[in-house]
Amino acid sequence: MNRVLNFSAGPSGIPLEVLKKAQDEFLSFQGKGYSIIEISHRSKVFEEVLHSAMQKVRDLYGFGDEYAVLFLQGGATLQFSQVPMNLYNGGVAEYVNTGNWTNKAIKEAKIRGINYKVIASSEETKFDRIPEFHFSDDADYGYICSNNTIYGTEYKEMPKCKCPLVVDSSSDLFSRPIDISNIGMFYGGIQKNGGPAGITLVVIRKDLAERVRSDVPTILRYKTQIEADSMSNTPNTFGIYMLNLMLEWIIKQGGLSEILKRNTKKAALLYSAIDEMSDFYKGHAQKSSRSLMNVSFNITKNGSELEPLFVKEAEKNGMIGLKGHRMLGGIRASIYNAVTLENVKTLVEFMKEFAEKNG
Ligand SMILES: *Cc1c(COP(=O)(O)O)cnc(C)c1O
Predict the structure, then answer these.
(1) What does the pLDDT look like over 309-331, one tens digit per residue?
(2) Residue 169: CB within 6 Å of ligand 1?
(3) 180 and 43 in one domain?
(4) 51 and 119 in one domain?
């Protein structure tokens, strides 16, 4: 079987052993004679999968009972409006704009008609960095995106603040341990680093879910889903099953601190290659804001011709997903958990050859 090296930004590569396990038990889950996607979400068999996945999220991040773990639908994108609907408390919500995904969240805050403020932005420098800022102590919440998938910037650590922090962590979920202490809620579509598309993981401090007003639709209240164990309606059973397998794999690798070690090594290798060949390649993000997950870069001369050629030749060499996002152009290598150090080495070798041939 011929498997490509997958540098896609999302949906993205899943470890072969996870896919194989799903394949092995697809027709008959645990020898029961039915597939996991063929049974009731209310059955004991499925509930075990659900609770096992929820527990793994708790164990990996290490938080207690004051937080709820939810598996929702509607993508990370629905959270852009669900957050202000549920967490706005009549004061002010503060946002930090670090690119397309926070821009969208800010737009939805506006549509909701809440009192919001953009307290910092890196738009002037084409979102090449995480700006400096401080959230007001009494803000209803402070909103950030911890990893900016398109521009390739990432918070090195969660900002300190007294207000509840809300974090869009779609593209760095399960990639590193985080300090949960001032987090009110973090969330993300799991298709970047945790499985197939169709599930949004939401981790929320339970007391914050009580803020919701009575004009918010029932299904869009976190409170509803906490009470219903994420099964207020039929959840994405197959997605939750796949997430559970992915989490099992992460735990088997040694958990988030081991995953972070690997991700740090992978990113260091790729960034140092870009820096060493700086007459040919140029990274988009400022060094201090570089993402461990998404590495966006350009070719310095003749980019409009050479960048598409790079992507095409990489594909011929069995590497897919390297085309930059349409908003930024250029090249982007997403090096999520399923991408190995070996895979990155192969990419770096290719980059060297390409630079020699075309430089
Ligand atoms: C991909 C992505 C989203 C959007 O996710 P959907 O599940 O497609 O709605 C939001 N935020 C970030 C940071 C992302 O990377």
Answers:
(1) 999 999 999 999 999 999 999 99
(2) no
(3) yes
(4) yes
